[in-house]
Amino acid sequence: MAHLLCTPIIASFVMILLSLGLAKSQKAPSYTFMKNAVESPAVSFYDYIIVGGGTAGCPLAATLSRNARVLLLERGGSPYGNQNISNLVGFAHTLADNSPNSAAQQFVSEDGVPNARARVLGGGSCLNAGFYTRASLKYVQNAGWNQALVNESYRWVEETVAFEPMVQQWQSALRDGLIEVGVGPYNGFNLDHIYGTKIGGSIFDKHGNRHTAADLLRHSNPAHLTVLLHARVTKLLFRLRGRPMPLAHGVLYCDSAGKLHKAYINKGSKNEIILSAGAIGSPQILMLSGVGPRRHLESMGIPVVLDQPMVGTGMSDNPMNALYVPSPIPVEVSLIQVVGITRFGTYIEGASGSNFAGAPASNVDNKLQRESVFLPKIYQQQPTSEAVASAGEPRNNLAELAFRGGFILEKIIGPLSKGDLKLKNTNPDDNPSIRFNYFKEPKDLRRCVAGLKTIEEVIQSKAFSKFTYPFLSIESLLNMTIGFPMNNIPRHDNDSKSLEQYCRDTVMTIWHYHGGCQVGRVVDRDYRVMGVDALRVVDGSTFINSPGTNPQATVMMLGRYMGIKIQNER
After folding, report:
1. Residue bearing the bigger pLDDT, 384 or 269
2. Residue positions forming the annotated binding site for FAD
3. Which residues are documented as binding site?
4. Residue 184 to residues 41, 340, 442: CA-CA distances in angstroms?
5. Residue 376: partners with Cβ closer than 8 Å, 6 or more residues away
6. Which residues are catalytically annotated?
7. How far apart are CA 3 and CA 104, in angstroms?
8. Can you tell me the distance from the alpha carbon of 431 to that of 17, in angstroms, rounded to the nearest whole number?
9. Which run of H or of E encompasses 314?
10. Which tens digit of pLDDT belongs to each residue from 234-273?
């Protein structure tokens, strides 16, 4: 979820959280089945081996453990006991942590956009902004899922991790502004994906405690489940001799002390290995194991088990663009609570706060630390005409600037633009090379422009008027936002004149990337890897499009859903 503090918009979210004050501490569950991988035997046997204890892997493991012996391998550590993850107030510290064992592993895509991937039990649900909302009925139908089982699986997840947020004045104004400009009807508090404006769910409870996918492990059978932390899978193991197709029968993993271990599935036609390592981890592990495009694997010196040219293709990331809106009056601190689901393929959301600032630039790219950035001279006091006139004046010390206001953002459905993932080397700890090709497809760009125009209308609406300065034009707001170091993409002189150019130059991630092991390309509709026996992929890498406005609810649902389906097959 690149160093997230690299973008002041994300830094703003972080500083919002820091200003919330201390939250009540959440009591950590007593998981007797969870231990460090250094304590595991050199060789072990299970009915199911799940690689990746993230947003899908945790509910999947909990479900399968009811009737089978399950090993869940997580490369990161536990979220419990880590206040930076469990409570809102420590959010910034997790995102700023660039250490080798940080819960957020940073990377920059080949597009020049900073990003990150989770490295912790619970996956991205330990790092994100907490918004919870389901996929649309059409998405479920297109996926070929059983609607009744989908609903049952969502409810199972929601009983543990979903809450109704407390909506205050700034978010209420955003809601009312969306309705005023035609993003209707108003659907109230609602977890369903339906056109109009609504209040979505949150995985933060009323005390500010985060509830993650790791919490779903409390529904497991402790006698049947083993969770190993700091267990880095280096490759899958296959049987080839005398078989019409490769059979996945084990995994090789390394503990934090550097010792290798082997885990095998027990004999039996229903026993399997399941990859749930995410949209980056799952295609990366397949390639490291010899399943992927032949030429690429051979160029890396990896023996080819199966020539599968579709592994690593279809990589997408839903582009996000935003406008910063300074406020003449104090605003509450809030993360994303309200969403406008438009009929032209754009979602409108926002976050607000007081006394937040652009944080120091990322260690991921020192270039951002050296650059002078253009930030407005608008502080807590009423801005003057001179301050507005100097909105383009270079400023080097971001931390000195404090703002009061919020960001209204748009992100597009899909997207249609696709990229790919390739290995840089054979080290499973290193990030692969990823290109998302933001706005390669013209329709994605048109949707971004439509979303920005809707944001402009909301800013100019009567409902939102008390949170805007009347003498600040939309062009001034665009110029202010352009100055933030959001990415490594060069700016253009016409950024505030052309919304198309603004979309391209200010694009950011909202960490909804997906693809790499897509249904119909790498896996079938039962998520079995085509051309390989006893191997499935169950996570966001299988998605062709991102589900709903925010994918985490559906990824958790999918883990539960497939756990029940696999269990029933048994």
Report:
1. 269
2. 120, 233, 511-512, 540, 551-552
3. 120, 233, 511-512, 540, 551-552
4. 58, 8, 26
5. 326, 383, 387, 388, 390, 391, 479, 480, 483
6. 512
7. 8
8. 28
9. strand 313-315
10. 999 999 988 899 999 999 999 999 999 999 999 998 999 9
